[in-house]
Write a structure and sequence with these properties.
Strand content: 15-25%
CATH class: Alpha Beta
Largest sheet: 3 strands, antiparallel
Oligomer: single chain
Structural class: alpha+beta
Distance between the termini: 20 Å
Order of helices and strands: HEHHEHE
CATH topology: Ribosomal Protein L30, Chain: A
Shape: elongated
Length: 85
């Protein structure tokens, strides 16, 4: 029973949150968002702007495994992220 609950929990909607930093340029963030989430450049620009103005943004929703993969790509250039479920 516990194993089923854990599996369900991992398949529940999870999110990747990207936080603002003073290190990366807009272009770097946009390029990495497109690479990580396969979103359009326009959508990546919207996320980058929200992160810049509000300090953070939910940039991806999916299973834990998907979020973990997205986070891994974002961390290739040391972007500050968090996974929440």
């Amino acid at each position: 029973m516990e194993e089923e609950e854990t599996e369900e929990r991992l398949n529940d909607p999870w999110v990747v949150i990207l936080y603002n930093d003073d290190i990366h340029s807009f272009d770097e963030v946009i390029e990495q968002l497109v690479k990580a989430t396969h979103c359009s450049v326009k959508q990546a620009e919207k996320h980058a702007w929200t992160v810049h103005t509000k300090g953070k943004d939910v940039i991806y929703k999916g299973t834990f495994e998907e979020c973990f993969q997205v986070q891994g790509v974002l961390r290739e250039i040391q972007l500050v992220t968090e996974i929440k479920g």
